[in-house]
Design goal:
about 230 residues; mainly alpha; 3-stranded mixed beta sheet; 12 helices; about 55% helix; elongated; BTB/POZ_dom; BTB domain-containing protein; SKP1/BTB/POZ_sf
Length: about 230
C-alpha cells in the first residue's frame, strides 16, 4: 500500500484535489477497482478522476473511512436536549420492532447545553448515497446505521430538529435515491407525522411527491395492521 502509485481526485465545483494511494482506492469496491486499474478507462490511464457532482465534505468522509474504518460525525458532541430530546412521541400504533427503531434515547450528558450546528442526519444520508453509488458496502452500512441512531434521538417537535428532518425528507424524494434509504426515512416520517405536519414546507413536499404520499400511507397501514 505504501508503494502504491498516487491516484488523484478532483472533487466538486471548486475542483479541489485529493490524492490517495491507488491500491487503497481500488480496495474499497469493484467500481473503484475498475476506475483505478482498468486501462480501457481514461481515469485508469491518467490515474485521475474528476467527480464534479460529489460534495468535498462527503468525499473527505470517504477518505477518512478508507484509512480508519469510520468517519467523524459533524455533530459529535454538538447535540443538545432542547433539539434531540428524550420524550417519546408515539402517534401511531407501531409494531414493537418499529417502536424500538425510532424510540428516542437520552443524549449523553456531554450534549447538554450545546447547540446543533449542522444537519447530521442529512450528512449521513449523503454519505450513504455516495457509498451506495460506488458500491462501498461497509461505508454504506456504517452511514445507514449512524443515520438510524441519529433518528432515534431526534425530536421533530423541536423546530430546528424538525427543519433538519424535513431537509432529509426533501433530499430523499427530490431525486432517485437508494431504496434502503427511502424506506428508512419514509418509515420515520410516518412515525413522526404529527410533528412534521406542523411544517408548511413538509406539506409542500408531500403535495409534490406522490412517492412520499404513497410511502407514508403504506407505512401507516402496515403499522396499524402489523399486530
Amino acid at each position: 500500500m505504501a508503494s502504491s502509485k498516487p491516484f488523484r481526485f478532483t472533487i466538486g465545483p471548486q475542483k479541489r484535489e485529493f490524492t490517495m494511494p491507488s491500491a487503497l482506492v481500488a480496495a474499497q469496491s469493484p467500481a473503484f477497482q475498475r476506475l483505478v486499474n482498468n486501462r480501457s478507462f481514461k481515469e485508469a490511464q491518467d490515474q485521475h478522476s474528476q467527480l464534479e457532482h460529489v460534495d468535498e465534505k462527503i468525499f473527505i468522509r470517504f477518505i477518512e473511512f478508507t484509512y480508519t474504518g469510520k468517519y467523524a460525525n459533524i455533530n459529535e458532541d454538538l447535540r443538545m436536549a432542547k433539539i434531540y430530546g428524550s420524550t417519546p412521541m408515539t402517534p401511531l400504533k407501531m409494531s414493537r420492532q418499529s417502536r424500538e427503531r425510532f424510540r428516542p434515547r437520552m443524549p449523553c450528558s456531554s450534549h447538554w447545553g450545546r447547540s446543533l450546528q449542522k444537519n447530521s442526519v442529512l450528512d449521513h444520508a449523503r454519505v450513504f448515497v455516495f457509498a451506495d453509488y460506488w458500491g462501498v458496502t461497509r461505508l454504506a452500512g456504517l452511514s445507514l446505521r449512524l443515520l438510524g441512531e441519529e433518528l432515534k434521538v431526534a425530536a421533530p417537535e423541536r423546530p430546528m430538529a424538525r427543519e433538519h428532518i424535513i431537509d432529509l425528507v426533501e433530499y430523499c424524494f427530490a431525486d432517485a435515491r437508494p431504496p434502503m434509504l427511502v424506506i428508512l426515512v419514509t418509515q420515520y416520517a410516518a412515525f413522526k407525522l404529527p410533528d412534521l405536519w406542523m411544517s408548511g414546507e413538509f406539506q409542500d413536499i408531500l403535495r409534490n411527491s406522490s412517492d412520499l404520499s404513497l410511502g407514508l400511507v403504506s407505512s401507516i397501514v402496515q403499522a396499524r395492521f402489523s399486530n
